[in-house]
Amino acid sequence: MSFVTTKKMTTGDWINYGCLILISAISIFPFLYVFSVSFTDPEVYVPLGFYLFPEKWSLDAYFYILQTNSFINALKSTVYVTFVGTILNVVVSFSMAYALTKKNMPGRKYILGIVIFTLVFNAGIVPNYLLIRELNLINSYWALILMALTNGWSIIVIKSFMDSLPPELEEAAKIDGANDMGVFLRIIIPLSMPAIAAFTLFFAVAHWNTYFNALVYLTDSSKWTLQVLVKTLVIDSDSNSMNTGGGGDESVVPQETIRMASIVLSMLPILVVYPFLQKYFAKGVMLGSVKG
Questions:
Q1: What is the DSSP letter of 10?
Q2: Bridge partners of 68?
Q3: Are 167 and 148 in contact (CB under 8 A)?
Q4: Which GO biological process categories is it annotated with (predicted)?
Q5: Could you tell me which residues come within 8 angstroms of residue 164 by beta carbon, excluding any fewer than 6 positions away?
Q6: In whole angstroms, what separates CA 286 from the centre of its chain?
Q7: CA 119, chain centre distance (Å)
Q8: Chain-wide mean pLDDT for the chain?
Q9: Which of 12, 107, 133, 234 has the maximum number of C-beta atoms within 10 A of its C-beta?
Q10: Cβ contact 265:79 at 8 Å
Q11: Residue 277: phi, psi to the nearest 5?
């Protein structure tokens, strides 16, 4: 018969938990304020007022934003860059990482050295801009996608993960007649699904939050991403830049509720995706692959 003993809470434990609760509450309050203002009815909205919960709920700000050409164009741009960029990120990063696991690959040490070199040194803003300009990619979505095609940290982490896979699996596949591409597609990729899910989320969040590159390389406001548009609305206080598409009257909807609603809409997709991919972070990548 076993007895379960519980640890008695000490004064230090109560202090730690109290501090964590306080920090969590302080972190949540800004989000509550943004959500509350965005859902507040324009008729009861008071400028410079603090709202934790709307006095009267309304979706007027969201209806107005979703009828504007600027927001729709920014949403399309962001979705395109995120979708295409994430797919290319995963393909390039995992393919290159797998190639670097091959010790007999010509020039492997030099390529790996270049990858590690990028972890320490960066060309800088001006050389990157000159490169994009010479490639005629100014005001092109490909300037955002190619600039973030992969990075040294992702390649090193993925390579280390692939190095941990049992070599017996690859040897068995080659005995059955599979080549390197077959091993990669039929053995490595299925075993790497948790890692692929995790890095897909990392890449997607990075593309969705693209701001500086979009601000520098996209000169046409109709190609702006959501983050640039939100910056224009919130920091520059330029709600007039949101041209309506035949509906809505900005004089009815306060600018503050428009700003807060645009913030909510820009971060909502990532908040929705996170819970569905979170389970892959803790999932064992070797589960069921090798049994002793």
A1: P
A2: 244
A3: no
A4: transmembrane transport
A5: none
A6: 26
A7: 20
A8: 81
A9: 234
A10: no
A11: -100, -5
How many other CB atoms are found less than 10 A from the CB of residue 145?
Answer: 22
* Cβ-based burial of 167 (10 A; exposed 0-12, middle 13-18, buried ≥19): exposed
Tokens of 236: 């520059």
Report the amino acid identity of residue 70: S
Q: Contact at 8 Å (CB) between 169 and 289? A: yes
Provide the β-strand partners of residue 40.
57
Type of residue numbered 290: V
Tens-place pLDDT, residues 78-107: 999 999 999 999 999 999 999 998 888 888
HEC string for 105-156: CCCHHHHHHHHHHHHHCCCCHHHHHHHHHHCCCCCCHHHHHHHCCCCHHHHH
Q: Which CATH architecture has domain 60-292?
A: Orthogonal Bundle (1.10)
Q: What's the full length of the chain, in residues?
A: 292
Please give the structure tokens belonging to residue 29: 């309050």
List CB contacts of 237: < 8 A, sequence separation 6 or more: 255
Helix ranges (H only) for 164-225 are: 167-175, 180-183, 189-191, 193-208, 212-217
What are the structure tokens assigned to 70, written together? 């600027």
**In degrees rounded to 5, what are phi and psi of residue 128?**
-65, -40
Domain-wise residue ranges, the chain: 60-292
Look at the block and give the residue holding tokens 């007027």: 60
